[in-house]
């Protein structure tokens, strides 16, 4: 029978034999899969694993600093690369969801390629691919690798994509990845983290993206997510987040009329993200969260809760 401990033992031995004394590059996202893959490789090859964690400027509030710190505490050889300005400059004026994704994918590849050139004589690219990703990538829609290819079929692949690929989690389902991570001592807060899209807050800011909008949404999201944790609701929800709508509405503040932004909160239950139901969060929680957001986040005067299920609504709004 399959056990996490046995998986770790055979996988680490296999990675040692396969990689030997060669250097490996791995992109950490802050998510469960890449983190577990990194810890497995760290066990096998230690400092020859070079992890790269990129801040695209579209992460949650404090996420880059907090997660980078946590990775270092875990003993990983990780470099944090703050490329926020590069991403946000490239996104200026873009409001179409798919072109936002393409721009972010392209800039990520550029940043990652630059960084991987700084690792002398790397031979391998490690990825936290899990079994459902393998299935998805052969389906018609095409995952991130399809995006990468569409951008680089002219002028050739970036150098890091020519490396030998190692994917230690390729045969595992998500719950197995979590169990493997737990057996290696990864923190519950890392293992239990909600899914978060690669393009980050870019696809939760409807329309064009500015630094000011990112800052507003980070505050709103932080109040919502921290509230879910404080109320013991975080682990009952599969994914949650806030959307900044391209809508101003009228409000009152004291004797003054305001004309400010509206945010939508979304929390869903799901097992794989393919279908999802909105979560029946307690009214008291929604009431408190809405008050906190409107009182604490300048520029926001209205909060709505998304009660749409998938299908037909998607989880993200873009
Ligand atoms: P939707 O909005 O399609 O989302 O119902 C399903 C799941 O996928 C995530 N998502 C993405 N993840 N890049 C990603 O890495 C993307 O472009 C992207 N779009 C959606 C979403 O957060 C949810 O978990």
UniProtKB/TrEMBL annotation:
Alphabetized UniProt keyword annotations: ATP-binding, Glutamine amidotransferase, GMP biosynthesis, Ligase, Nucleotide-binding, Purine biosynthesis
Keyword presence, Kinase: no
Annotated ATP binding sites: 29-35
Pathway this chain belongs to: Purine metabolism; GMP biosynthesis; GMP from XMP (L-Gln route): step 1/1
EC id: 6.3.5.2
GO molecular function: GMP synthase (glutamine-hydrolyzing) activity
Occurrences of domain GMPS ATP-PPase (ranges): 2-193
Reactions accelerated catalytically: XMP + L-glutamine + ATP + H2O = GMP + L-glutamate + AMP + diphosphate + 2 H(+)
Record function comment: Catalyzes the synthesis of GMP from XMP.
Subunit structure: Homodimer.
Name of the protein in its database record: GMP synthase [glutamine-hydrolyzing]
Gene: guaA
Portion of the parent chain present: 193 to 510 of 510
């Amino acid at each position: 029978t399959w056990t996490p401990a046995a998986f770790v033992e055979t996988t680490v031995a296999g990675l040692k034999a396969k990689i030997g004394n060669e250097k490996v590059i791995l992109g950490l996202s802050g998510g469960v899969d890449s983190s577990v893959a990194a810890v497995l490789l760290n066990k096998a090859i230690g400092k020859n694993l070079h992890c790269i964690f990129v801040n695209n400027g579209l992460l949650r509030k404090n996420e880059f600093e907090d997660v980078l710190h946590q990775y270092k505490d875990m003993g990983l050889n990780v470099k944090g690369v703050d490329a926020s300005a590069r991403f946000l400059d490239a996104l200026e004026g873009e409001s179409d969801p798919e072109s936002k994704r393409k721009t972010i994918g392209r800039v990520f590849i550029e940043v990652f390629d630059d960084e991987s050139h700084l690792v002398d004589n790397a031979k391998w690219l490690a990825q936290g691919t899990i079994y459902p990703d393998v299935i998805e990538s052969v389906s018609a829609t095409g995952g991130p690798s399809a995006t990468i290819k569409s951008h680089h079929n002219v002028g050739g692949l970036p150098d890091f994509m020519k490396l030998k690929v190692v994917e230690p989690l390729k045969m595992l389902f998500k719950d197995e990845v979590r169990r493997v991570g737990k057996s290696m001592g990864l923190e519950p807060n890392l293992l239990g983290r909600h899914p978060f899209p690669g393009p980050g807050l870019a696809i939760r800011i409807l329309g064009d993206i500015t630094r000011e909008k990112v800052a507003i949404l980070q505050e709103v999201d932080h109040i919502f997510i921290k509230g879910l944790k404080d109320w013991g609701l975080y682990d009952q929800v599969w994914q949650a987040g806030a959307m900044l709508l391209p809508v101003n509405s009228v409000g009152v503040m004291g004797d003054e009329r305001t004309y400010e932004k509206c945010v939508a909160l979304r929390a869903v239950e799901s097992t794989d993200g393919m279908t999802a139901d909105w979560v029946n969060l307690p009214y008291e929680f929604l009431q408190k969260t809405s008050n906190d957001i409107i009182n604490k986040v300048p520029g926001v005067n209205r909060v709505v809760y998304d009660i749409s299920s998938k299908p037909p609504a998607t989880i993200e709004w873009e």
